[in-house]
Amino acid sequence: MDEMQAIRYLESLIGQTLRVHTTDTRMFVGAFKCTDAERNIILAGTYEYRFPCPSAIRNATANTNDEQVEASPEPKNVTVDMTSRFIGLVVVPGQHITKIELEETPQQSRLRDTLRKS
């Protein structure tokens, strides 16, 4: 991708909802506003999500294992909720970003698929 294509792509993302993952395992979900040369990202209307602490996972696993022994020897999946909070406008430092995902609505996904076919 040349420089102009990269700039056009970044411009097309402005206003889109991004999921930005960081080195400390947090995830930020908000509307992309801008970025800079250091790869810092500004998101608006942002929610911060945190994975459950190890003790919450251990407790959920222990409770499932107790039920599992009585019910069947098959392993079961454990579901533990992430915690979240609204933080509004946020700058995510580029040095801590591990992954960026574009969150598409079903309508946007259909449009993208239609454009690819033509």
From TrEMBL:
Signal sequence region: none
PANTHER family, sorted: N-ALPHA-ACETYLTRANSFERASE 38, NATC AUXILIARY SUBUNIT, SMALL NUCLEAR RIBONUCLEOPROTEIN-ASSOCIATED PROTEIN B AND N
Domain Sm: 8-102
One cellular-component annotation, GO: NatC complex
Matches recorded under InterPro entries: LSM_dom_sf, LSMD1_Sm, Sm_dom_euk/arc, snRNP_SmB/NAA38-like
Assembly behavior: Component of the heptameric LSM1-LSM7 complex, which consists of LSM1, LSM2, LSM3, LSM4, LSM5, LSM6 and LSM7. Component of the heptameric LSM2-LSM8 complex, which consists of LSM2, LSM3, LSM4, LSM5, LSM6, LSM7 and LSM8. The LSm subunits form a seven-membered ring structure with a doughnut shape.
Protein name per Swiss-Prot or TrEMBL: Sm domain-containing protein
